[in-house]
Specification:
Elements: E1 2-7, H1 12-26, E2 35-40, H2 55-62, H3 67-82, H4 99-110, H5 114-127, H6 135-144, H7 149-158, H8 162-175, E3 182-185, E4 189-192, H9 197-211, E5 228-229, E6 232-233
């Protein structure tokens, strides 16, 4: 089973959704047969590499949201994050363009490190006030996950994975992704948003059963084997 997750490093619900999905996956009996692929998505591609302002000022000035409404939204999201063990600190969030962070995730995926890098980027952004647009942070994050610093710098200097990131954007649009997180199971099931773990678990089980239907083995003779049912046992 393959699960593709369209997500942005700068999306607070994406981190919460990641945790809820992981809870469901941990309890899935066939989790060792599941491949997870992180796909890139940007909530605001027009952001400069570094934005001079707070998260509240960004949403109020660039998105036209009322500052009081934003503060209330942050309180709600922080509470939901705490429910899955995350410690959001919106006052410390550094607003920055996430494109290079997505390039780093693609480099990490090529080396089997995508989930570790994705986790570190999300945690750094929402829990530790790190700048996801800063080269120093990206190199530090990548090397901590086992990537080579020279390979990270070379990939970012040349835009080695830029087309892959843009391809994810385009493929997401083609699939109708209009918000993140967005989960696609075997290109048959789509799940939008940071849904409860129970819904993810249900979707995993349904997708698995559809892909791996139970095949009944017919009896060699005309008479079937004896069975017991709700109304008793066959004689």
């Amino acid at each position: 089973m393959k699960i593709e997750i369209w997500s942005d490093v700068a999306c607070p619900w994406c981190y919460i959704g990641k945790r809820r999905f992981e809870t469901a996956l941990d309890g899935f009996p066939h989790k060792d047969s599941v491949e997870v692929q992180w796909r890139s998505y940007q909530l605001d591609p027009s952001l400069p590499e570094h934005y001079d302002g707070t998260e509240i000022s960004y949403l109020s000035e660039r998105k036209g949201m009322d500052p009081g409404q934003v503060a209330g939204m942050f309180a709600h999201v922080t509470e939901q994050a705490a429910g899955v063990g995350l410690d959001y600190k919106f006052n410390d969030v550094v607003v920055a363009n996430s494109f290079n962070a997505h390039q780093l995730i693609h480099l990490a995926a090529a080396n089997g490190k995508a989930d570790a890098v994705k986790e570190a980027l999300l945690s750094g952004h929402f829990e530790h006030g790190e700048d996801i647009g800063a080269r120093e942070f990206l190199v530090r994050t990548g090397t901590a996950a086992g990537l080579d610093a020279a390979a990270i710098n070379e990939a970012l200097d040349t835009g080695k994975y830029a087309d892959d990131v843009r391809h994810d954007f385009a493929e997401g649009r083609a699939l109708g992704v209009q918000g993140v997180p967005f989960f696609v199971i075997d290109r048959k099931y789509g799940i939008s948003g940071a849904q409860p773990s129970e819904l993810f678990a249900q979707a995993l089980n349904e997708a698995w059963q559809e892909a791996n239907p139970l095949t009944m083995v017919a009896a060699a003779s005309a008479d079937g084997a004896e069975v017991c049912g709700p109304d008793g046992c066959a004689v």
